[in-house]
Design goal:
Blueprint (H helix, E strand, L loop, with lengths): L10 E2 L4 E4 L5 H8 L2 H4 L11 H12 L7 E7 L3 E10 L5 E7 L8 H15 L5 E7 L3 H9 L3 E11 L4 E11 L1
Bound molecules: coenzyme A.
C-alpha cells in the first residue's frame, strides 16, 4: 500500500477541520463532486467524476512539490469529508486557490471559513505573501467566498477552458495579499 505523506498539516477551524487527503477520501470525493453544478464551475474537474478520477488526483497531489502545492480536505466532524481547498501553481508561477464543497453543505459559510483558515496557514506557516484565484463570471457564490476571504479583483478577465463545460468561460482574476 502506498504511503502518503502527512501533508499539508491537520488544522482546526471554527466548525471544520482542514487535513491531508488520503486515498480513503476517493469514494466520498467522487460521490460529492460527481455533480455538474460543481464541475462546471471549475477548470479541471471532469463530468462525470469517478472514483478513479479522484484516486489519480489524490495520488498526483501526494507527489506534488510541497513548496508549491497543497491539498486540504475540508472535514465536518459529524460528516467526514465535505469538500477540498487546493493550492496549485498556475501558468504565471503564482499559487492559485481553488475549492469545491458538496452540494448538501452549500450556503452555511463553510467554504468561507475553510478558505480563511487556509489563507491564515499560508501566511503564517507556508510563508506565502501573495496568492491568486479566479472565478467564472457566472459563479456569484464563489465570488462572494473570495471577497469575504479578502481577495481583490485585479481587473484581468481571462478565457479559461472548463473540462466539464467542454468550453472556455470568462474568468475574473483575483489576488490576495498577506
Ligand atoms: C462556491 C462554493 C464553494 C461556496 O461554498 P459555501 O460554503 O456555500 O459558501 P459560503 O456559504 O461560505 O458563502 C457563499 C456566499 O455566496 C453567496 N451566494 C450563493 N449563491 C449566490 C448567488 N446565486 N448569487 C449571489 N450570491 C450567492 C451566499 O449568499 C454567500 O454569501 P453571504 O455569506 O455573504 O451571504 C460552493 O457553492 C461550491 O462548491 N460550488 C461549486 C464549485 C465552485 O464553484 N468552486 C469554486 C470555483 S472558483
Amino acid at each position: 500500500m502506498t504511503q502518503f505523506p502527512s501533508w499539508p498539516p491537520d488544522i482546526a477551524a471554527e466548525r471544520l477541520r482542514l487535513r491531508p487527503v488520503t486515498l480513503e477520501d476517493a469514494a466520498p470525493m467522487a460521490r460529492l463532486a460527481d455533480d455538474l453544478d460543481i464541475a462546471r464551475m471549475t477548470t479541471s474537474i471532469p463530468y462525470p467524476f469517478h472514483v478513479a478520477d479522484a484516486e489519480s488526483f489524490i495520488a498526483r497531489m501526494a507527489a506534488a512539490d510541497r513548496a508549491r502545492e497543497a491539498l486540504f480536505g475540508v472535514e465536518l466532524p459529524t460528516e467526514g469529508l465535505i469538500g477540498v481547498v487546493g493550492l496549485h501553481p498556475n501558468d504565471q508561477d503564482r499559487v492559485e486557490v481553488g475549492y469545491w464543497l458538496g452540494r448538501p453543505y452549500w450556503g452555511r459559510g463553510y467554504m468561507t471559513e475553510a478558505v480563511e483558515r487556509v489563507l491564515l496557514w499560508a501566511r503564517e506557516e507556508w510563508g506565502r505573501a501573495i496568492l491568486a484565484s479566479g472565478h467564472f463570471a457566472d459563479n456569484p457564490a464563489s465570488a462572494a467566498v473570495l471577497i469575504k476571504a479578502g481577495f481583490l479583483y485585479t481587473g484581468e478577465r481571462r478565457a479559461r477552458f472548463s473540462l466539464a463545460r467542454e468550453a472556455e468561460a470568462e474568468t475574473r482574476m483575483m489576488i490576495w495579499l498577506a
